[in-house]
């Protein structure tokens, strides 16, 4: 990241845009709202694809000949895991950064809209070829399964658009630091910059993979492709993407949740240390998805398990900080009993309720992640639907409920409206519906995975085999959970439409917590991202240098393409 200064133009723009909306310049909130709109559309269509998947797998529905289960699977994954999470994170982080830094730089707006256009066009292109049946690659687009080359071009445009948004964030971040020498960046902006740093690190892997390897292969310019290099490059991106969502989510836990409950941030320095550990240690964790892959020595797998487990530390730090924040708030209100502070929390506030349920879900989700990353235990659940259940706990529950909770203040903040008591009650109901649906679906997936039921499979009857017959009940429960979740999606969209267009006009704040103790503030070197990026690159080199070199020089003949039905 280079130091980019645009202070004079920045100030001129702020003066010209004095008519602020929700406390941030009009140009900024329009960009955020545009990103949120695409995220909401992706949620609806991705949810429909997921609902149909559950009906097909459980045997309740037979699809027409013009669309396959694997097209639905790919659409569900791409729209929810990649499109929804990316657009929502950008809209949310841009709005929050504008709020705490006094607006986005003009060049940030230019990069943001250009990135938005490329991401939108890329999403439409990729979705078209998924629905046409030319991209049945199970979301992870594992080679040698091959899609239409324009599907990959659509994904490449999406990634390039994300990278342009990263550049835009760095411009505003560095412009603020240039104008405020000797000041520590506000904690929310620190989180936002960390998320975009991770996006750059992740996107470099997928860009090399898709542009340098997959597109030439998909067009037929080269006859074969190395699946091991492909899986390795993909999971360096895929695992980092998971923690991009998580880092985006916990930014709301650390920064906004204290304000909502009437307290203060427990520890600014603890939060920043947790962020730095996630950035430095994250990318090598992708190898735990390849514990059973050939071509990796036992010694390398042991190293990668250790590197993956480093991510546990910021998770435990976050759990401690959240409980400490809530307890301190209760004590400040006069509570003296051991657990009396629990009753003082604003359980009737949908913004808090969605976040606390997301935090509860993170406990089993984290425990499942430890199992998945453990060399021996992973072999019990690897490639079973247990892993899908884990993904629905982490992304589908912890991340999505946090995003929903954020939207309950973010949308009215951007549209100049307020959350009514009726909408608040509906939002609490939506959180309960979503949590119950995920509990049913994810619980059934975990149990079925322990019985050996595979993931990414349309039919699991195995011609009536006795072993597979025990899976049927859990498949039915998964479909029932999907129905409940789709009801939650419809209710959520209704709430969003109300908050955007019909709720009463008024002022809704973007909740930014204050520190308990100014002496706890981090030293200025924490803002030296050159240090953390360098350490991250060293960590990546240690993890990926040897295996990628071995794959590249191992004279693997490669594989021709395979097309999924």
Outline the structure in words.
The N terminus is likely disordered. This protein is mostly helical. The chain starts with 6 loop residues before the first helix and ends in a 12-residue tail after the last helix. It comes from Planococcus chinensis. Keywords: Electron transport, Membrane, Respiratory chain, Transmembrane, Transmembrane helix, Transport. This is Cbb3-type cytochrome c oxidase subunit I. InterPro entries: Cyt_c_oxase-like_su1_dom, Cyt_c_oxase-like_su1_sf, Cyt_C_Oxase_1.
Please, how many helices? Answer: 17
The largest sheet is: none
Could you report the average pLDDT, rounded to the nearest whole number? 90
Number of E strands: 0
As a whole number of angstroms, the C-alpha radius of gyration is: 23 Å
- Measured by DSSP, the beta-strand proportion falls in under 5%
**Structural class given helices, strands, pairing?**
mainly alpha
List segments where confidence is low: pLDDT < 50 over at least 5 consecutive residues: 1-10, 12-19
Q: What overall geometry do the principal axes of the alpha carbons give? A: globular
Helix and strand element order: HHHHHHHHHHHHHHHHH
- Give the CA-CA distance, first to last residue: 44 Å
What is the helix fraction of residues, given as a range?
A: over 70%
């Amino acid at each position: 990241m280079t130091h980019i200064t645009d202070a004079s133009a920045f100030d001129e723009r702020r003066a010209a845009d004095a008519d602020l909306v929700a406390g941030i310049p009009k140009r900024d909130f329009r960009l955020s709202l545009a990103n949120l709109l695409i995220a909401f559309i992706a949620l609806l269509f991705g949810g429909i694809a997921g609902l149909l998947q559950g009906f097909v797998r459980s045997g309740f529905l037979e699809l027409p000949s013009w669309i396959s289960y694997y097209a639905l699977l790919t659409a569900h994954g791409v729209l929810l895991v990649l499109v929804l999470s990316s657009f929502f994170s950008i809209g949310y982080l841009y709005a929050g950064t504008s709020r705490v830094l006094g607006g986005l730089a003009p060049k940030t707006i230019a990069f943001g809209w250009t990135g938005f256009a490329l991401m939108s066009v890329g999403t439409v292109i990729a979705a078209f070829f998924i629905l046409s049946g030319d991209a049945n690659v199970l979301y992870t687009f594992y080679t040698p399964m091959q899609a239409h080359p324009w599907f990959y071009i659509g994904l490449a445009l999406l990634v390039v658009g994300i990278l342009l948004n990263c550049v835009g964030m760095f411009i505003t971040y560095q412009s603020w630091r240039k104008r405020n020498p000797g000041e520590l960046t506000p904690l929310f902006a620190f989180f936002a910059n960390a998320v975009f740093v991770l996006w750059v690190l992740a996107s470099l892997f997928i860009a090399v993979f898709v542009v340098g390897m997959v597109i030439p292969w998909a067009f037929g310019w080269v006859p074969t492709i190395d699946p091991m290099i492909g899986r390795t490059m993909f999971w360096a991106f895929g695992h980092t993407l998971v923690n991009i969502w998580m880092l985006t989510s916990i930014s709301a836990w650390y920064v906004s949740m204290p304000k909502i409950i009437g307290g203060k941030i427990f520890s600014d320095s603890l939060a920043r240390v947790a962020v730095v550990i996630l950035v430095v240690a994250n990318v090598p964790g992708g190898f735990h998805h390849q514990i059973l892959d050939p071509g990796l020595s036992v010694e390398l797998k042991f190293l990668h398990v250790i590197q993956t487990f480093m991510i546990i530390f910021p998770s435990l730090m976050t759990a401690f900080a959240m409980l400490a924040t809530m307890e301190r708030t209760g004590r400040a209100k006069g509570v003296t009993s051991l657990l009396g502070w629990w009753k003082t929390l604003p359980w009737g506030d949908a913004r808090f309720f969605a976040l606390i349920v997301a935090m509860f879900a993170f406990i089993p989700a984290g425990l499942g992640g430890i199992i998945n990353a453990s060399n021996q235990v992973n072999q019990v659940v690897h490639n079973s639907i247990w892993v899908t259940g884990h993904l629905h706990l982490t992304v589908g529950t912890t991340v999505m409920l946090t995003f929903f909770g954020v939207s309950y203040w973010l949308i009215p903040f951007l549209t100049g409206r307020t959350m009514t008591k009726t909408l608040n009650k509906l939002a609490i109901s939506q959180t309960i519906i979503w949590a119950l649906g995920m509990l049913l679906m994810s619980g059934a997936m975990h149990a079925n995975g322990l019985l050996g039921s595979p993931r990414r499979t349309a039919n699991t009857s195995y011609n009536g085999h006795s072993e597979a017959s025990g899976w049927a009940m859990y498949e039915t429960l998964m479909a029932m959970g999907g129905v409940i979740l789709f009801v939650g999606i419809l209710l959520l969209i209704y709430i969003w439409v109300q908050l955007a267009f019909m709720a009463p006009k008024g002022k809704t704040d973007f909740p930014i917590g204050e520190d308990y103790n100014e002496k706890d503030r981090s030293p200025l070197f924490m803002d030296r991202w050159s240090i953390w990026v360098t350490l991250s690159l060293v960590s990546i080199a240690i993890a990926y240098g040897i295996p990628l070199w071995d794959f590249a020089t191992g004279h693997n003949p490669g594989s021709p393409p395979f097309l999924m039905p």
